[in-house]
Amino acid sequence: MQKNDNTIKAVNKNVRTSPRKLSLVLNFIKGKKADTALRDLEFSRKRIAKDVSKTVKSAISNAENNYQYDIDNLFIKEAYVGKSLVMKRFRPRAKGRASPIKKPFSRITIILGEKKEIKKKQENK
Q1: How many helices (H) and strands (E) does the chain have?
Q2: Cβ atoms of 9 and 111 closer than 8 Å
Q3: Of residues 105, 99, 100, 106, the one with CA closest to residue 86
Q4: Helices (H), the chain
Q5: What domains appear along the chain, each with residue ranges and CATH number?
Q6: Do the beta carbons of residue 21 and residue 105 sit within 8 Å?
Q7: Tens digits of per-residue pLDDT, 11-29?
Q8: pLDDT (tens digit, 9 = 90+) per residue, 92-120?
């Protein structure tokens, strides 16, 4: 079996926030090293950053336990969000009417990759 082309995946389904709000946080961590991304998420002021942090930690542990990758070489290759189910509620309005409220859920997908460090010998002149 191959190592799945140096990618590790973690998916968090049914996260209670809209995909539009969540994509702001995911674009913020895309391309960063895994430990740097976790640190940035910890100090983010967005509420949803905790759920994203959980998903990144899950992807890191998948890499460590399932594929024996070195944690220091992992980076966030892709981070994207998809739509999930939508709860529909109604709010009473004037004159016996009702207006709909949509409470969307999202699906977070984090894909990690491993950077292979190529060490070059530099000769001092």
Answers
A1: 3, 3
A2: yes
A3: 105
A4: 19-29, 34-42, 49-67
A5: 4-114 (3.90.470.10)
A6: no
A7: 999 999 999 999 999 999 9
A8: 999 999 999 999 999 999 999 988 766 65
Please state the pTM of the whole predicted model. 0.82
What pLDDT shows up at residue 121? Answer: 58
pLDDT at 7 over 80: no
- The tokens describing 97, both together, are 């009417």
Read off the tokens for 121: 């010998």
- Contact (Cβ atoms closer than 8 angstroms) between residue 50 and residue 58: no
**For 11, phi and psi rounded to 5 degrees?**
-125, 135
CB 62 within 8 A of CB 74: no
